[in-house]
Write a structure and sequence with these properties.
With 455 residues, the chain is α/β, with parallel strands linked by helices. The protein has 3 domains: 131 residues, 3-Layer(aba) Sandwich (Rossmann fold), CATH 3.40.50; 172 residues, Rossmann fold; 129 residues, Orthogonal Bundle (Helicase, Ruva Protein, domain 3), CATH 1.10.8. Helix content is 48%, strand content 14%. It has 20 helices and 16 strands. A 5-stranded parallel sheet has the order 2-1-3-4-5, with helices on both faces. Helix 2 runs parallel beside helix 3, helix 5 crosses helix 13 and helix 18 packs across helix 19. The longest helix is centred in the N-terminal third of the chain and has 29 residues. Bound molecules: adenosine-5'-triphosphate and magnesium ion.
Protein backbone atom coordinates (compact mmCIF):
# COMPACT_ATOMS: atom_id res chain seq x y z
CA UNK A 1 0.00 0.00 0.00
CA UNK A 2 2.85 2.42 -0.78
CA UNK A 3 0.71 4.44 -3.23
CA UNK A 4 2.86 7.16 -4.75
CA UNK A 5 4.68 8.45 -1.72
CA UNK A 6 7.51 10.77 -2.74
CA UNK A 7 10.91 9.86 -1.34
CA UNK A 8 14.25 11.65 -1.51
CA UNK A 9 17.45 9.77 -0.68
CA UNK A 10 20.42 11.99 0.18
CA UNK A 11 23.81 10.28 0.53
CA UNK A 12 27.21 11.02 -0.96
CA UNK A 13 28.10 7.31 -0.83
CA UNK A 14 26.90 5.98 -4.14
CA UNK A 15 26.47 2.37 -3.04
CA UNK A 16 24.19 3.28 -0.16
CA UNK A 17 22.24 5.79 -2.21
CA UNK A 18 21.63 3.44 -5.10
CA UNK A 19 20.71 0.55 -2.86
CA UNK A 20 18.03 2.69 -1.23
CA UNK A 21 16.75 4.18 -4.49
CA UNK A 22 16.57 0.71 -5.95
CA UNK A 23 14.63 -0.64 -3.02
CA UNK A 24 12.08 2.19 -3.09
CA UNK A 25 11.67 1.93 -6.84
CA UNK A 26 10.88 -1.77 -6.61
CA UNK A 27 8.45 -1.10 -3.79
CA UNK A 28 6.57 1.32 -6.06
CA UNK A 29 7.59 4.64 -4.51
CA UNK A 30 8.26 7.83 -6.47
CA UNK A 31 11.94 8.07 -5.51
CA UNK A 32 14.86 10.34 -6.37
CA UNK A 33 18.46 10.48 -5.18
CA UNK A 34 20.76 13.39 -4.33
CA UNK A 35 24.52 12.95 -4.06
CA UNK A 36 25.09 15.64 -1.47
CA UNK A 37 23.57 18.32 0.77
CA UNK A 38 23.63 21.10 -1.81
CA UNK A 39 21.96 18.94 -4.47
CA UNK A 40 19.29 18.04 -1.89
CA UNK A 41 18.59 21.71 -1.08
CA UNK A 42 18.14 22.46 -4.78
CA UNK A 43 15.68 19.59 -5.18
CA UNK A 44 13.76 20.59 -2.05
CA UNK A 45 13.24 24.03 -3.53
CA UNK A 46 11.43 22.52 -6.48
CA UNK A 47 9.40 19.69 -5.02
CA UNK A 48 7.77 18.38 -1.83
CA UNK A 49 8.75 14.97 -0.53
CA UNK A 50 6.89 12.83 2.00
CA UNK A 51 10.03 11.11 3.30
CA UNK A 52 13.60 12.31 3.18
CA UNK A 53 16.36 9.79 3.95
CA UNK A 54 19.32 11.87 4.94
CA UNK A 55 22.95 10.93 5.52
CA UNK A 56 24.49 12.90 8.37
CA UNK A 57 28.16 13.07 7.38
CA UNK A 58 28.56 14.67 3.96
CA UNK A 59 31.21 17.14 2.74
CA UNK A 60 30.26 20.85 2.41
CA UNK A 61 26.54 20.89 3.27
CA UNK A 62 25.95 18.17 5.88
CA UNK A 63 22.82 16.35 7.02
CA UNK A 64 22.12 18.70 9.93
CA UNK A 65 22.00 21.71 7.64
CA UNK A 66 19.56 19.98 5.31
CA UNK A 67 17.50 18.88 8.33
CA UNK A 68 17.22 22.47 9.58
CA UNK A 69 16.20 23.62 6.11
CA UNK A 70 13.49 20.96 5.90
CA UNK A 71 12.15 21.81 9.36
CA UNK A 72 11.60 25.46 8.45
CA UNK A 73 10.66 25.12 4.79
CA UNK A 74 8.97 21.73 4.38
CA UNK A 75 7.13 21.09 7.65
CA UNK A 76 5.12 18.19 6.21
CA UNK A 77 8.15 16.13 5.17
CA UNK A 78 9.40 13.44 7.53
CA UNK A 79 13.16 13.14 7.84
CA UNK A 80 14.93 9.85 8.56
CA UNK A 81 18.64 10.09 9.33
CA UNK A 82 21.06 7.56 7.88
CA UNK A 83 23.83 6.96 10.40
CA UNK A 84 26.93 4.82 10.47
CA UNK A 85 26.96 1.97 12.92
CA UNK A 86 28.24 3.21 16.29
CA UNK A 87 27.19 6.86 15.97
CA UNK A 88 23.92 6.67 17.83
CA UNK A 89 24.60 9.96 19.65
CA UNK A 90 24.52 11.94 16.42
CA UNK A 91 21.26 10.22 15.52
CA UNK A 92 19.79 11.19 18.87
CA UNK A 93 20.93 14.77 18.27
CA UNK A 94 19.17 14.73 14.93
CA UNK A 95 15.97 13.43 16.52
CA UNK A 96 16.10 16.30 18.98
CA UNK A 97 16.39 18.68 16.05
CA UNK A 98 13.29 17.24 14.43
CA UNK A 99 14.18 14.05 12.55
CA UNK A 100 11.50 11.43 13.14
CA UNK A 101 13.59 8.26 12.93
CA UNK A 102 16.95 6.88 11.89
CA UNK A 103 18.39 4.01 9.92
CA UNK A 104 21.75 2.47 10.79
CA UNK A 105 24.20 1.47 8.04
CA UNK A 106 24.62 -1.28 6.99
CA UNK A 107 20.94 -2.25 6.81
CA UNK A 108 18.92 -5.21 5.60
CA UNK A 109 15.82 -4.91 3.38
CA UNK A 110 13.86 -6.22 6.39
CA UNK A 111 14.98 -3.24 8.53
CA UNK A 112 13.78 -0.88 5.85
CA UNK A 113 10.39 -2.56 5.54
CA UNK A 114 9.84 -2.34 9.30
CA UNK A 115 10.90 1.28 9.40
CA UNK A 116 8.56 2.19 6.55
CA UNK A 117 5.60 0.52 8.13
CA UNK A 118 6.21 2.61 11.24
CA UNK A 119 6.63 5.79 9.22
CA UNK A 120 3.52 5.28 7.13
CA UNK A 121 1.43 4.75 10.23
CA UNK A 122 2.83 7.93 11.82
CA UNK A 123 2.33 9.87 8.63
CA UNK A 124 -1.28 8.83 8.31
CA UNK A 125 -2.07 9.88 11.87
CA UNK A 126 -0.20 13.17 11.52
CA UNK A 127 -2.06 13.98 8.31
CA UNK A 128 -5.43 13.19 9.86
CA UNK A 129 -4.62 15.27 12.90
CA UNK A 130 -3.41 18.16 10.77
CA UNK A 131 -6.77 18.24 8.99
CA UNK A 132 -8.63 18.19 12.29
CA UNK A 133 -6.40 20.91 13.70
CA UNK A 134 -7.10 23.12 10.74
CA UNK A 135 -10.83 22.60 11.17
CA UNK A 136 -10.61 23.41 14.86
CA UNK A 137 -8.82 26.62 13.98
CA UNK A 138 -11.27 27.89 11.41
CA UNK A 139 -14.90 27.52 10.60
CA UNK A 140 -15.73 25.07 13.38
CA UNK A 141 -15.49 27.65 16.09
CA UNK A 142 -17.54 30.48 17.46
CA UNK A 143 -15.69 32.13 20.34
CA UNK A 144 -14.68 29.17 22.57
CA UNK A 145 -17.30 26.85 21.08
CA UNK A 146 -16.14 24.07 18.80
CA UNK A 147 -18.54 22.26 16.50
CA UNK A 148 -18.30 20.75 13.03
CA UNK A 149 -21.78 19.24 12.93
CA UNK A 150 -24.58 20.75 10.95
CA UNK A 151 -26.57 21.61 14.08
CA UNK A 152 -23.63 23.38 15.73
CA UNK A 153 -23.00 25.35 12.56
CA UNK A 154 -26.64 26.43 12.68
CA UNK A 155 -26.29 27.35 16.31
CA UNK A 156 -23.23 29.51 15.51
CA UNK A 157 -25.29 31.28 12.85
CA UNK A 158 -28.10 31.91 15.33
CA UNK A 159 -25.67 33.27 17.90
CA UNK A 160 -24.44 35.78 15.34
CA UNK A 161 -27.98 36.68 14.31
CA UNK A 162 -29.17 37.42 17.82
CA UNK A 163 -26.03 39.38 18.71
CA UNK A 164 -27.62 42.66 17.69
CA UNK A 165 -30.75 42.15 19.82
CA UNK A 166 -31.21 42.52 23.52
CA UNK A 167 -34.00 39.98 23.91
CA UNK A 168 -33.73 37.36 26.65
CA UNK A 169 -32.45 33.96 25.55
CA UNK A 170 -33.40 30.61 27.06
CA UNK A 171 -30.89 27.81 26.53
CA UNK A 172 -32.06 24.25 26.81
CA UNK A 173 -29.90 21.17 26.83
CA UNK A 174 -28.85 18.14 28.82
CA UNK A 175 -26.10 18.41 31.37
CA UNK A 176 -22.64 19.06 29.90
CA UNK A 177 -23.86 20.08 26.44
CA UNK A 178 -22.17 23.48 26.70
CA UNK A 179 -24.98 25.79 27.85
CA UNK A 180 -22.65 28.02 29.83
CA UNK A 181 -20.17 28.22 26.95
CA UNK A 182 -23.00 29.18 24.58
CA UNK A 183 -24.12 31.88 27.03
CA UNK A 184 -20.56 33.27 27.04
CA UNK A 185 -20.43 33.18 23.23
CA UNK A 186 -23.72 35.09 23.06
CA UNK A 187 -22.28 37.70 25.36
CA UNK A 188 -18.95 37.90 23.53
CA UNK A 189 -20.54 38.40 20.11
CA UNK A 190 -23.13 40.91 21.36
CA UNK A 191 -22.85 44.67 21.58
CA UNK A 192 -22.48 44.26 25.32
CA UNK A 193 -19.21 42.37 25.02
CA UNK A 194 -17.25 45.17 26.68
CA UNK A 195 -19.51 44.85 29.74
CA UNK A 196 -19.36 42.08 32.35
CA UNK A 197 -20.63 38.51 31.99
CA UNK A 198 -22.12 37.59 35.36
CA UNK A 199 -23.18 33.97 35.92
CA UNK A 200 -25.15 32.67 38.85
CA UNK A 201 -26.20 29.10 39.48
CA UNK A 202 -29.71 29.37 40.90
CA UNK A 203 -29.63 25.78 42.09
CA UNK A 204 -26.64 26.35 44.37
CA UNK A 205 -28.30 28.56 47.00
CA UNK A 206 -31.05 28.36 49.57
CA UNK A 207 -33.98 30.69 48.93
CA UNK A 208 -32.79 33.48 51.26
CA UNK A 209 -29.21 33.31 50.07
CA UNK A 210 -30.25 33.33 46.43
CA UNK A 211 -32.34 36.44 47.04
CA UNK A 212 -29.43 38.32 48.55
CA UNK A 213 -27.03 37.00 45.88
CA UNK A 214 -29.28 38.26 43.12
CA UNK A 215 -30.62 41.49 44.55
CA UNK A 216 -27.91 42.37 47.05
CA UNK A 217 -28.83 43.81 50.42
CA UNK A 218 -28.62 46.98 52.49
CA UNK A 219 -26.70 46.95 55.76
CA UNK A 220 -28.88 45.68 58.57
CA UNK A 221 -31.34 44.01 56.18
CA UNK A 222 -31.01 40.83 58.25
CA UNK A 223 -28.77 39.55 61.03
CA UNK A 224 -25.28 39.24 59.63
CA UNK A 225 -25.80 41.85 56.92
CA UNK A 226 -23.17 44.25 58.25
CA UNK A 227 -22.52 46.14 55.04
CA UNK A 228 -24.38 46.99 51.90
CA UNK A 229 -23.72 44.37 49.26
CA UNK A 230 -24.25 44.55 45.54
CA UNK A 231 -26.13 41.64 43.99
CA UNK A 232 -25.49 39.96 40.65
CA UNK A 233 -28.23 42.00 38.94
CA UNK A 234 -26.31 45.14 39.74
CA UNK A 235 -22.95 43.62 38.82
CA UNK A 236 -24.30 42.74 35.38
CA UNK A 237 -24.96 46.41 34.59
CA UNK A 238 -24.10 47.04 30.94
CA UNK A 239 -23.36 43.36 30.33
CA UNK A 240 -25.04 39.96 30.44
CA UNK A 241 -26.61 38.15 33.39
CA UNK A 242 -26.54 34.38 33.06
CA UNK A 243 -29.09 32.61 35.26
CA UNK A 244 -28.07 28.97 35.23
CA UNK A 245 -30.53 26.26 36.33
CA UNK A 246 -33.42 28.71 36.12
CA UNK A 247 -35.83 25.85 36.87
CA UNK A 248 -34.60 25.93 40.48
CA UNK A 249 -35.80 29.48 41.18
CA UNK A 250 -38.57 29.52 43.82
CA UNK A 251 -41.98 30.75 42.69
CA UNK A 252 -41.93 33.89 44.80
CA UNK A 253 -38.62 35.00 43.35
CA UNK A 254 -39.94 34.36 39.84
CA UNK A 255 -42.47 37.12 40.49
CA UNK A 256 -39.74 39.49 41.71
CA UNK A 257 -37.55 38.76 38.71
CA UNK A 258 -40.41 39.16 36.28
CA UNK A 259 -41.01 42.62 37.70
CA UNK A 260 -37.32 43.50 37.32
CA UNK A 261 -37.39 42.41 33.69
CA UNK A 262 -40.48 44.45 32.95
CA UNK A 263 -39.59 47.62 34.85
CA UNK A 264 -35.81 47.48 34.43
CA UNK A 265 -35.36 48.55 38.02
CA UNK A 266 -35.12 46.82 41.38
CA UNK A 267 -34.30 47.38 45.01
CA UNK A 268 -31.85 45.62 47.27
CA UNK A 269 -33.12 43.40 50.09
CA UNK A 270 -33.97 45.67 53.03
CA UNK A 271 -33.86 48.79 50.86
CA UNK A 272 -36.53 50.88 49.22
CA UNK A 273 -34.65 53.00 46.68
CA UNK A 274 -35.33 51.90 43.16
CA UNK A 275 -32.14 51.27 41.22
CA UNK A 276 -32.36 51.33 37.41
CA UNK A 277 -30.54 48.51 35.65
CA UNK A 278 -29.72 47.50 32.13
CA UNK A 279 -28.51 44.01 31.22
CA UNK A 280 -29.10 41.23 28.72
CA UNK A 281 -30.60 38.12 30.30
CA UNK A 282 -29.55 34.61 29.28
CA UNK A 283 -31.03 31.66 31.18
CA UNK A 284 -30.32 27.95 31.03
CA UNK A 285 -32.10 24.83 32.16
CA UNK A 286 -31.89 21.09 31.67
CA UNK A 287 -35.47 20.68 32.84
CA UNK A 288 -38.59 20.66 30.75
CA UNK A 289 -40.09 23.97 31.91
CA UNK A 290 -43.45 23.29 30.27
CA UNK A 291 -43.83 20.23 32.48
CA UNK A 292 -42.76 22.33 35.47
CA UNK A 293 -45.52 24.79 34.58
CA UNK A 294 -48.06 21.97 34.42
CA UNK A 295 -47.14 20.77 37.88
CA UNK A 296 -47.23 24.32 39.22
CA UNK A 297 -43.51 24.69 39.92
CA UNK A 298 -42.86 27.34 37.30
CA UNK A 299 -44.83 30.47 36.42
CA UNK A 300 -46.16 30.67 32.90
CA UNK A 301 -45.84 34.47 32.63
CA UNK A 302 -42.20 34.27 33.74
CA UNK A 303 -41.58 31.50 31.21
CA UNK A 304 -42.90 33.58 28.32
CA UNK A 305 -40.80 36.53 29.41
CA UNK A 306 -37.60 34.40 29.41
CA UNK A 307 -38.37 32.43 26.34
CA UNK A 308 -38.28 35.17 23.72
CA UNK A 309 -35.48 33.36 21.91
CA UNK A 310 -35.06 29.68 22.65
CA UNK A 311 -31.91 27.80 21.70
CA UNK A 312 -31.79 24.05 22.00
CA UNK A 313 -28.33 22.50 22.33
CA UNK A 314 -28.56 18.89 21.18
CA UNK A 315 -26.91 16.10 23.17
CA UNK A 316 -23.50 15.00 21.88
CA UNK A 317 -24.84 11.63 20.69
CA UNK A 318 -27.05 13.54 18.25
CA UNK A 319 -24.09 15.37 16.69
CA UNK A 320 -21.31 12.83 16.39
CA UNK A 321 -19.57 14.90 13.72
CA UNK A 322 -18.44 17.15 16.57
CA UNK A 323 -16.66 14.32 18.36
CA UNK A 324 -13.39 14.23 16.33
CA UNK A 325 -12.81 17.99 16.49
CA UNK A 326 -13.76 18.21 20.15
CA UNK A 327 -11.49 15.28 21.02
CA UNK A 328 -8.63 16.90 19.12
CA UNK A 329 -9.27 20.24 20.80
CA UNK A 330 -9.28 18.73 24.30
CA UNK A 331 -6.24 16.59 23.53
CA UNK A 332 -4.20 19.63 22.59
CA UNK A 333 -5.30 21.60 25.61
CA UNK A 334 -4.60 18.76 28.03
CA UNK A 335 -1.28 17.98 26.39
CA UNK A 336 -0.18 21.57 26.94
CA UNK A 337 -1.37 21.52 30.53
CA UNK A 338 0.23 18.20 31.43
CA UNK A 339 3.23 18.10 29.09
CA UNK A 340 2.44 14.48 28.25
CA UNK A 341 4.06 13.23 25.01
CA UNK A 342 0.79 12.37 23.26
CA UNK A 343 0.74 13.50 19.64
CA UNK A 344 -2.72 12.51 18.44
CA UNK A 345 -5.65 10.11 18.28
CA UNK A 346 -5.86 7.28 15.77
CA UNK A 347 -8.88 6.62 13.61
CA UNK A 348 -9.97 3.50 15.48
CA UNK A 349 -10.10 5.44 18.72
CA UNK A 350 -12.15 8.17 17.03
CA UNK A 351 -14.60 5.50 15.86
CA UNK A 352 -14.88 4.18 19.40
CA UNK A 353 -15.66 7.69 20.66
CA UNK A 354 -18.28 8.15 17.95
CA UNK A 355 -20.04 4.98 19.05
CA UNK A 356 -20.28 5.83 22.72
CA UNK A 357 -23.57 7.42 23.90
CA UNK A 358 -22.01 10.16 26.10
CA UNK A 359 -24.67 10.54 28.82
CA UNK A 360 -22.54 13.34 30.33
CA UNK A 361 -22.13 14.96 26.89
CA UNK A 362 -19.18 17.22 26.08
CA UNK A 363 -18.05 17.39 29.71
CA UNK A 364 -17.78 13.60 29.80
CA UNK A 365 -15.81 13.59 26.54
CA UNK A 366 -13.46 16.21 27.94
CA UNK A 367 -12.87 14.10 31.05
CA UNK A 368 -12.41 10.92 29.00
CA UNK A 369 -9.75 12.55 26.81
CA UNK A 370 -8.01 13.86 29.91
CA UNK A 371 -7.96 10.43 31.47
CA UNK A 372 -6.71 8.83 28.25
CA UNK A 373 -3.94 11.41 27.79
CA UNK A 374 -2.79 11.09 31.38
CA UNK A 375 -2.68 7.28 31.32
CA UNK A 376 -1.64 6.75 27.67
CA UNK A 377 1.13 4.22 27.13
CA UNK A 378 2.10 5.29 23.59
CA UNK A 379 2.44 8.47 21.60
CA UNK A 380 -1.00 8.14 20.03
CA UNK A 381 -4.30 7.45 21.76
CA UNK A 382 -5.74 4.15 20.58
CA UNK A 383 -9.06 2.45 21.24
CA UNK A 384 -7.48 0.67 24.20
CA UNK A 385 -6.90 4.00 25.90
CA UNK A 386 -10.69 4.47 25.92
CA UNK A 387 -11.56 0.94 27.03
CA UNK A 388 -12.66 2.29 30.41
CA UNK A 389 -15.72 3.87 28.77
CA UNK A 390 -17.18 0.47 28.04
CA UNK A 391 -16.55 -1.13 31.39
CA UNK A 392 -19.34 -1.24 33.95
CA UNK A 393 -18.72 1.43 36.48
CA UNK A 394 -18.68 -1.02 39.41
CA UNK A 395 -15.79 -3.28 38.33
CA UNK A 396 -13.98 -0.21 37.02
CA UNK A 397 -13.22 0.96 40.54
CA UNK A 398 -11.07 -1.57 42.36
CA UNK A 399 -12.61 -2.69 45.62
CA UNK A 400 -9.37 -2.75 47.50
CA UNK A 401 -8.36 0.47 49.21
CA UNK A 402 -4.72 -0.33 48.47
CA UNK A 403 -5.32 -0.65 44.71
CA UNK A 404 -7.39 2.54 44.68
CA UNK A 405 -4.67 4.45 46.49
CA UNK A 406 -2.04 3.13 44.10
CA UNK A 407 -4.03 4.09 41.00
CA UNK A 408 -4.94 7.50 42.37
CA UNK A 409 -1.33 8.35 43.21
CA UNK A 410 -0.23 7.20 39.76
CA UNK A 411 -2.89 9.34 38.09
CA UNK A 412 -1.89 12.46 40.01
CA UNK A 413 1.82 11.85 39.33
CA UNK A 414 1.12 11.57 35.62
CA UNK A 415 -1.08 14.63 35.72
CA UNK A 416 1.79 16.69 37.12
CA UNK A 417 4.41 15.10 34.87
CA UNK A 418 6.03 13.39 37.88
CA UNK A 419 6.84 16.68 39.52
CA UNK A 420 7.01 15.36 43.10
CA UNK A 421 6.44 18.71 44.83
CA UNK A 422 3.34 19.53 42.79
CA UNK A 423 1.92 16.00 43.04
CA UNK A 424 2.52 15.90 46.81
CA UNK A 425 0.79 19.25 47.18
CA UNK A 426 -2.21 18.06 45.15
CA UNK A 427 -2.42 14.86 47.17
CA UNK A 428 -2.05 16.88 50.38
CA UNK A 429 0.76 14.70 51.67
CA UNK A 430 4.45 15.45 52.25
CA UNK A 431 7.07 14.79 49.62
CA UNK A 432 8.70 12.22 51.91
CA UNK A 433 5.40 10.33 52.20
CA UNK A 434 4.92 10.48 48.43
CA UNK A 435 8.42 9.13 47.84
CA UNK A 436 7.80 6.23 50.18
CA UNK A 437 4.47 5.45 48.52
CA UNK A 438 6.07 5.47 45.07
CA UNK A 439 8.59 2.98 46.38
CA UNK A 440 5.98 0.94 48.19
CA UNK A 441 3.73 0.60 45.13
CA UNK A 442 6.68 0.33 42.77
CA UNK A 443 5.37 3.15 40.57
CA UNK A 444 7.38 4.07 37.47
CA UNK A 445 7.07 7.17 35.35
CA UNK A 446 5.43 6.53 31.96
CA UNK A 447 8.26 8.32 30.17
CA UNK A 448 10.73 5.82 31.56
CA UNK A 449 8.44 2.91 31.00
CA UNK A 450 7.64 3.46 27.31
CA UNK A 451 11.27 4.27 26.54
CA UNK A 452 10.13 6.44 23.63
CA UNK A 453 8.91 3.48 21.60
CA UNK A 454 5.78 3.62 19.50
CA UNK A 455 2.83 2.01 21.31
N1 LIG B 1 -18.90 23.09 21.82
C1 LIG B 1 -17.94 23.04 22.76
N2 LIG B 1 -16.67 23.32 22.43
C2 LIG B 1 -15.68 23.27 23.35
N3 LIG B 1 -15.87 22.93 24.63
C3 LIG B 1 -17.12 22.65 25.02
C4 LIG B 1 -18.22 22.68 24.10
N4 LIG B 1 -19.33 22.36 24.77
C5 LIG B 1 -18.97 22.13 26.03
N5 LIG B 1 -17.65 22.30 26.21
C6 LIG B 1 -16.90 22.10 27.47
O1 LIG B 1 -17.59 21.08 28.18
C7 LIG B 1 -17.71 21.42 29.56
C8 LIG B 1 -19.18 21.54 29.93
O2 LIG B 1 -19.74 22.70 29.31
P1 LIG B 1 -20.77 23.66 30.07
O3 LIG B 1 -20.36 23.86 31.49
O4 LIG B 1 -20.94 24.88 29.25
O5 LIG B 1 -22.04 22.73 29.99
P2 LIG B 1 -23.49 22.96 30.64
O6 LIG B 1 -24.47 22.60 29.60
O7 LIG B 1 -23.56 24.32 31.23
O8 LIG B 1 -23.50 21.84 31.76
P3 LIG B 1 -24.45 21.75 33.09
O9 LIG B 1 -25.84 21.50 32.62
O10 LIG B 1 -23.90 20.56 33.81
O11 LIG B 1 -24.27 23.02 33.81
C9 LIG B 1 -16.95 22.71 29.74
O12 LIG B 1 -15.64 22.41 30.17
C10 LIG B 1 -16.92 23.32 28.37
O13 LIG B 1 -15.79 24.12 28.19
MG1 LIG C 1 -23.81 24.83 33.25
Amino acid sequence: MSGRWKVLVVDDEMIVREALVDWFMKAGYDVEGADGGQAALDMLDRKDYDFIFLDIKMPEVDGFEVLDYVKTNCPNSMVIMITAYGSIETAVDAMKRGACDYLTKPFEPGDLACLLERLLQQKRILDENAILREQVASRVRCEDLIGASHCMQQLFELIKQIAAFDSPVLLRGETGTGKELVAKAIHATSERCAGPFIPINCGAFTETLLESELFGHESGAFTGAKRTKKGRLEMAEGGTLFLDEIGEIPLKMQIDLLRVLQEKRFHRVGGNTDIPIDFRLVCATNRDLKKEIERGAFRQDFYYRLNVIELEIPPLRARIDDIPVLAQHFLERIRKETNRPVAGINQQAINVLKNYPWPGNVRELENAVERAVVLAKGHFLTKDDFAFLFRNSAPDLPHSLRENEKQHIERILNLYGWNISKAAEALEISRVTLHSKIKHYNLISCNNRSGGSQG
